TrEMBL record:
One Pfam family cited in the UniProt record for this chain: Beta-prop_ATRN-LZTR1
Span of the signal peptide: none
Protein's recorded name: BTB domain-containing protein
UniProt keyword list: Kelch repeat, Repeat
Listed GO CC annotations: Golgi apparatus
Organism: Hyaloperonospora brassicae (Brassica downy mildew)
Repeat among keywords: yes
SMART domains: BTB, Kelch
PANTHER family, per database record: LEUCINE-ZIPPER-LIKE TRANSCRIPTIONAL REGULATOR 1 (PTHR46376:SF1)
The BTB domain, residue ranges: 332-398
């Protein structure tokens, strides 16, 4: 196969009309196989919309969320840590703000970050932030004055602290870029209120020392509001404002400290500043911005690796095809009677479930019956079990998870039991902890039982005041005694 020369190109997208509307001064982060965009300014209003682009499916979508989203804003920062997307500070149209809000991808919930120690940075906008190890580091910005303070938020301790650093500390600025390379972060450019900047500073996370980086080669002009990203051992800078919008593209080799303008085929994206970007899968991804007269919503990528020409292989349809066999009488060779209604199946279920294998191939009466009665299971739950056995996949709703767990336990489907337990644990809270503990005990869900006990003991005063705890005590007082003994 031939190689494709490196060039800029639109990100392949199957629903371009669903992309976020034109904007600048927004924030983004890449996580797993998705690119997330939050907020910004569309020329008339600041927004708090939240979008996901999934690179595998090549689709834009609005991120589903419960809870109170951050207020509309621009000039904020966004970072990802573990399974959450965080938004910090910015400008809401009337004032600078310094709130700190988390979106949890697992629970699909927005919530304010609970800070257990330390004081946050002053309300500001146009700052820069990165994640290193278990902390977010936030530099500079504008709080009424141009700043060069440096702050750390430790996600595991939920604590803010000033970074006590030495060395050649960068001068105050806003709209600079900050990227992580190995055990260091690299600060480039910005604006100090009087001039665009082109200096480069390196902060060592281990020694807590700032140093000035002396470079060689043709460097980019002083600028702010650009995008920077790290790939391999180099930092890449695209666009920004030098007083006017630019579209130049530079590489800084972080081993030789040498700048060079990037060479590529074709044309770069249009000139812009106040855009966003992130590195994903050997590509620099860029979205939106302002070209000096209009806001943009184009979605561009530059691949650092030369690609091999290849065919676009369609996604597998196997799971959807197998799902069509669930309760389908076409070629059905076994019929279950559940709540008096037929549920059609196929004896291939024998290889997925030892219970059905014994039932349909052994000496049980059912092996010779044309119709097999199923008792003690509701029909919708039995069909869910069947769907899982056919496809090895099931979206389990919380309200049926315990009932489905009991059915999976009865039929010996261990992985489905774990899926149900995981879904129930996601919903665990003070209001339902006692009922989950009670149900887990009733259905011998050992892992779920222990997790709920741990939660109840850690939140004992709140849980014991709930209706669920009172009901558990009336139904099985032994469970209350067990909790009291383990306190």
């Amino acid at each position: 196969m031939q190689s494709a020369a490196r060039s800029w190109a639109p990100v392949p997208c199957n629903n371009p009309s669903a992309a976020p509307r034109h904007r600048s001064l927004h924030a983004c982060a890449a996580c797993n196989d998705s690119f997330y965009v939050f907020g910004g300014y569309d020329g008339s209003n600041r927004t708090n919309d939240f979008y996901e682009f999934n690179f595998k499916r090549k689709l834009w979508s609005v991120v589903l969320a419960i809870g109170s989203a951050p207020s509309p804003r621009d000039r904020h920062v966004a970072v990802v840590y573990k399974n959450s997307f965080f938004v910090f500070a910015g400008f809401d149209g009337s004032s600078r703000i310094n709130d700190f809000v988390e979106y949890n991808f697992a629970t699909q919930r927005w919530s304010n970050v609970v800070v257990s120690a330390g004081l946050p940075p002053t309300a500001r906008h146009s700052h820069a932030a990165v994640v290193y190890d278990e902390s977010m580091y936030c530099f500079g910005g504008y709080d009424g004055n141009y700043r060069n303070d440096f702050h750390e938020f430790n996600f595991e301790l939920n604590a803010w602290s000033p970074v006590l650093s030495t060395g050649l500390i960068p001068r105050p600025r806003y709209r600079s870029s900050l990227v992580v390379h190995n055990n260091q972060c690299v600060l480039f450019g910005g604006h100090d209120g009087s001039h665009h900047l082109d200096d480069i500073h390196v902060f060592d996370f281990d020694t807590r020392v700032w140093s000035w980086l002396t470079t060689e080669g043709p460097a980019p002009a002083a600028r702010d509001s650009h995008v920077a990203g790290v790939y391999s051992n180099a930092m890449y800078v695209f666009g920004g404002s030098t007083g006017t919008a630019v579209s130049d593209f530079y590489e800084l080799d972080l081993e030789s400290n040498t700048w060079r303008p990037m060479q590529f085929n074709g044309q770069p994206p249009a000139q812009r500043f106040c855009h966003v970007g992130a590195v994903y899968d050997s590509s620099l991804i860029v979205f939106g911005g302002y070209d000096g007269s209009r806001r943009l919503n184009d979605f561009q990528q530059f691949r650092f690796k030369e690609e091999q020409f290849q065919l676009d292989i369609p996604e597998s349809t196997l799971i959807n095809d197998l799902r069509l066999l669930v309760n389908n009488d076409i070629m059905s060779d076994v019929t279950f009677i559940v709540e008096g209604i037929p549920v059609y199946g196929h004896k291939i279920l024998c290889i997925r479930c030892s219970y059905f294998n014994a039932m349909l191939t052994g000496e049980m009466l059912e092996s010779r019956a044309r119709e097999i009665p199923i008792t003690e299971v509701r029909r919708p739950i039995f069909i869910m079990l069947m769907e899982y056995l056919y496809t090895d996949h099931l979206d389990v709703a919380v309200d049926v998870a315990m009932e489905l767990f009991a059915t999976a336990d009865r039929y010996g489907v261990e992985r489905l039991k774990r899926i149900c337990e995981s879904k129930i644990l996601e919903s665990l809270c003070t209001k339902n902890a006692a009922s989950i503990f009670h149900a887990a005990d009733l259905h011998n869900a050992t892992l779920l039982r222990e997790q709920s006990i741990t939660f109840i003991l850690n939140n004992f005063d709140a849980v014991t005041k709930t209706d669920a705890f009172e009901e558990m005590g009336r139904t099985n007082i032994e469970l209350v005694f067990e909790l009291l003994k383990r306190r």
